């Protein structure tokens, strides 16, 4: 039979067990604290991913709408393009452009955002430019050489249109009167009326025969010259 422990030994063992239980309690509390921190970090990472996803969707939409308009200078487009790429790098942490291939892709992406009449010309010369700044300077020179025309309203009529004569009312080539054509001219069936009828060309009253002779002799109508 084992010898019974003394009272002091029993107390010492009880104290050891209590200390061990205290260590276990501290370990459990520490483990719980670590779990809470991990859970908070996971929730924070989830919220960050959702926020980044929302920002990415917004950046995609802004990238779709990013296009040089007719009245927008290239300097404004270049600033917007740089701002877009900066925001993209902030959202996509650890992903940035460093190599030559990435720079080529950035230059091509910038060229696509230009007006078609400018981008197509510079796309052929893309290999000559080493940065977006050089492309921006080239576009600036192009815009200064070929300024964009102002936007015209829908009811604007170009005075130099070749078909502007179509807007004038039709008239008879025989008597120069509206409302009928030469084949239906009443003067063809009334020779006396045809000879008495006078026509006005370039401010001068002449007969049809005289007008034809004058037209053959002069290549330019007299109305173009000052009196």
Automatic annotation (TrEMBL):
Gene3D superfamilies per record: Zinc finger, CCHC-type (4.10.60.10)
Top-rank taxon, per record: Eukaryota
Position of the signal peptide: none
Record-level Gene Ontology MF annotations: nucleic acid binding; zinc ion binding
InterPro entries: Znf_CCHC, Znf_CCHC_sf
Protein name: Retrovirus poly
Lineage: Eukaryota, Metazoa, Cnidaria, Anthozoa, Octocorallia
């Amino acid at each position: 039979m084992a010898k019974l422990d003394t009272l002091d030994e029993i107390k010492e063992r009880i104290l050891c067990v209590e200390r061990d239980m205290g260590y276990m309690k501290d370990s459990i509390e520490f483990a719980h604290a670590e779990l809470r921190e991990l859970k908070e970090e996971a929730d924070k990472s989830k919220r960050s991913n959702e926020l980044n996803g929302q920002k990415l969707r917004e950046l995609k939409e802004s990238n779709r709408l990013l296009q040089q308009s007719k009245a927008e200078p290239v300097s404004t487009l270049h600033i917007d393009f740089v701002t877009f790429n900066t925001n993209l790098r902030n959202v996509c942490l650890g992903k940035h452009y460093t190599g030559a291939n990435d720079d080529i892709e950035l230059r091509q992406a910038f060229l696509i955002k230009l007006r078609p009449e400018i981008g197509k010309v510079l796309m052929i010369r893309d290999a000559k430019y080493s940065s977006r700044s050089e492309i921006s300077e080239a576009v600036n020179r192009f815009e200064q050489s070929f300024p964009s025309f102002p936007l015209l309203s829908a009811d604007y009529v170009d005075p130099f249109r070749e078909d502007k004569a179509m807007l004038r009312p039709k008239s008879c080539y025989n008597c120069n009167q509206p409302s009928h054509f030469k084949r239906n001219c009443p003067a063809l069936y009334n020779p006396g009326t045809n000879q008495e009828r006078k026509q006005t060309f370039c401010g001068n009253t002449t007969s049809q025969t005289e007008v034809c002779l004058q037209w053959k002799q002069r290549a330019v109508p007299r109305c173009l010259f000052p009196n």
